[in-house]
């Protein structure tokens, strides 16, 4: 059994972690960090202390009406992507421990296309 890093739990909710393959389990948000525990395999878990969180990247659709997923970017270990049943409540619980300035929306489809075109023309201008 995995030992939790939290001493006080604020929220527990069903969730999906996108770590290679999709893993179904529960997200636990507490005073010490963010945790994901797989419901079938106890060896598959993610524990992120609040000190390690660099940014929370939120995918926003339909002007904030729908949030399909969110990612937690850590200082050393990369980015972990999750989705849950009630993402707005999860993000509100995370906002208590993470600075709201570090919670940013992800790039939209058109922003990604715009960046691609800019980088192509930037490469042509250098040559």
CATH architecture: Roll
Helix percentage: 10-25%
Overall radius of gyration:
17 Å
- Counted beta strands: 8
How do the strands line up in the largest sheet?
Answer: 4-3-2-1-7-6-5-8
Q: Tell me the structural class.
A: alpha+beta
- Give the biggest sheet: 8 strands, mixed
Assign an overall shape.
elongated
Quaternary status: single chain
As for the number of domains, it is 1
Quote the beta fraction: over 45%
Return the CATH class. Mainly Beta
Low-confidence stretches: none
Average pLDDT: 88
- CATH fold name: PH-domain like
Report how far the terminal alpha carbons are from each other. Answer: 58 Å
CATH superfamily: Pleckstrin-homology domain (PH domain)/Phosphotyrosine-binding domain (PTB)
Strand and helix order? EEEEEEEHEH
InterPro entries: DUF956
Protein name: Regulator of the mannose operon, ManO
Pfam families: DUF956
Describe the protein's topology.
Layout: E1 9-19, E2 21-30, E3 33-38, E4 45-49, E5 53-61, E6 66-74, E7 79-84, H1 87-95, E8 103-105, H2 109-126
Parallel strand pairs: 5-8
Antiparallel strand pairs: 1-2, 1-7, 2-3, 3-4, 5-6, 6-7
Give a brief rundown of this model:
The chain has 127 residues and is an alpha+beta fold.
Question: What does it look like?
Answer:
The protein is α+β, with helices and mostly antiparallel strands. It has a single domain (9-126), classed as Pleckstrin-homology domain (PH domain)/Phosphotyrosine-binding domain (PTB) (PH-domain like, Roll), CATH 2.30.29.30. 21% of the residues lie in helices and 46% in strands. It is built from two helices and eight strands. The chain has helices spanning 87-95, 109-126; strands at residues 9-19, 21-30, 33-38, 45-49, 53-61, 66-74, 79-84, 103-105. Strands 4-3-2-1-7-6-5-8 form an eight-stranded mixed sheet, with helices on one face. A hairpin with a 4-residue loop joins strand 6 and strand 7. The chain is elongated, with a radius of gyration of 17 Å. It starts with 8 loop residues before the first strand and ends with a helix.
């Amino acid at each position: 059994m995995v030992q939790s890093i939290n001493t006080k739990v604020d929220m527990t909710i069903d969730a999906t972690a996108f770590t290679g393959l999709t893993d179904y389990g529960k997200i636990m948000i507490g005073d010490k960090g963010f945790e994901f525990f797989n419901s079938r395999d106890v060896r598959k878990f993610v524990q992120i202390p609040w000190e390690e969180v660099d940014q929370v990247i939120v995918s926003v659709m339909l002007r904030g009406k729908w949030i399909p997923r969110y990612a937690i970017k850590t200082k050393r270990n990369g980015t972990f992507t999750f989705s849950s049943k009630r993402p707005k409540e999860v993000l509100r619980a995370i906002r208590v421990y993470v600075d709201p300035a570090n919670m940013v929306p992800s790039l939209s489809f058109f922003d990604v296309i715009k960046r691609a075109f800019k980088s192509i023309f930037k490469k042509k201008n250098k040559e």
